[in-house]
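In response to reviewer comment 3 from the previous cycle, which asked for concrete evidence that the modeling workflow produces usable outputs, we include below a single protein chain processed end to end. The sequence was submitted unchanged, and the resulting structure tokens are shown without manual editing.
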Amino acid sequence: MRRLAGGLAALFVMIGLVWPSQAWAAEDSVDSWNVVYAVDTAGVLHVQETIVWRFGTNSGRHGIDRVLVRREPWGSTNQDALYGITKIDVTSPDAPAQFTTIYSPADQRNQQMDVRIGSPSQTIPIGQPTATYTLTYDVTGAMRSGGDYDELYWDAIGDNTPVVNNITITVSVPGGVLDVACFAGPAETSKSCDQALVNPDGTASYQVASKSGYDIMTIGAMIGPGLVSDNQPHLVPAVVPPTKPPAPRPTGPTTTSPSSSADGGVAVGLFLALIIGGALVGLAQRDSSGDDPAVIPYRPPATDLRFLGVPPGTTEAGERGVGPDDKPTIPVAFIPPKIPVAGAGLLDDGSVDVRDMTAALISLAVRGVIKLTENKTANAAAEPVLGATVLDASLPMAPHEKNLVVNIFPTLNPGDQVQLSGPAGLADAYKDLRRDLLADAKLAGWYAQMPEDGWRGQRSALGRAYEDQVQGFRKYLTTAEADQIKFEEGEDIFSRYLPWAVIFGVAQLWTELCGQLMHEGKMPAISPAWFSDDQMQFDFIRLLDSFQRIEHYTSAAYERATPRSDSMQSRWPSTSSWDSTVGSWSSSGTGFGAGSAFGGSHSSGGFSSGGFSGGGGGGGGARSW
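The workflow returned the following structure tokens.
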């Protein structure tokens, strides 16, 4: 069991280091994140953030990056919101507090500021598990007004962080806060925070016990009219350079539908996330290249269809037939949907991203189609070789899975091997998976309007039913305690559910939970047959160097092979950013904007909306470096 746990821990370290949507050390977490917001009568937002960062074992990290949003699209308009960030200061009682600021290019709609905290010549000592940083700064342009009231509607913590625990936020405004709103979850969710209330002294308090790396925490504070002078967003015309014509839409498979598969795997998902991550990093970095950046106009999300009058997740119509989604409460599901895991990832957010490919490869390995390997070379100074072997390509697969295997292996003969860390990488396979998975979803009837050009699409009633199942299983994996995990004797639930944990962004949580059960003897310490290496012991630094080369090779291969218009079909809304200076990917504002946390209408925004996570201004994430 210790041998397995050591390998899994090492593999997990790798996922966070290269996976572009989580660019921190994989074992990092945040013990607490306390924010104090104070709005003055001039409309300036004064911010104080105190972050207790827990660095992963043997992290070798120097400090943290706090990424702040400076510009983002303003709703459905052809305008962008500007946020002036000034008077930055950082203090720390136990770590270097020097900082530098790095700015994204000024030729794109999403622009960020990276406040890099720490010393390039010092790392956090191994014996010091945490460091506390207090960051203060002022923001202009953060306010908005609906006429009857003004408000601070703000994405306090964005969706590119490690797991953040014990989030507390306090807001004070002129005249006292009149009402509060708070949302926490993936972008566009209306799930309420654990606490949001107006205190007797007129301040507001908000709390969330824990958020995953892919969740956004958004707060709203209502202010009486006439108390804030600069109560409007600072809007400027959008930067929309000429774009190339869109690439022809793929036709994809036409004879078969997606196969049922709920299998997954553990350690390799973490291992493969690094390999595959390079492809998506390539996409993210394209936006900031300054060479014909393709800016896609915002399209408001469409209302899904739903089978009415039947329990959520039911895949057949009842007596009431089909109608607009009435957003019922989704119950917890204790088993994953019987659809391919990559398809679940597409349904969940309307895009095919690196996590979906990672999960698909893990699932194929667990089901016995392929085996994943990592081996050292005879040259001790050389990087380990990351590879895969064909086991049985005749096993049932969805069309997109079959094509993925065909794209990776030159032949499908049992025993055929490929090196995943070579110059070609997985760029072509990833590109084709995006096309094939969308084609499979269309054929299966999951969408009334297909996702395209970054728009999430409109799910059909059948697609909405499967998404209900996905959301229900997400609740199970993200909230289950060790004594709530259900499995049959001898079942390798650890491997089976990992790809789902990968697409939900909770691979670390799932790994730790199963590790606890193994340690307590409540879960068998099964050594996965679908992954092997020389000794199941890893040199983190050497592996990181190897994967950084994979990132470079895969990004370069994808760049050469992919027209710019096709490359822009990544996760929507566009949150990719620059950071070629430090070689990383960071979170941006969501670009929803223009609405109200309280359901009011803002004339400058062009539409009326209720509140949801990611709907406010600002945003940004954090990572270690």
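The first strand starts at residue 29 and ends at 39. We consider this sufficient to address the reviewer's concern, and the full set will be provided in the supplementary archive.
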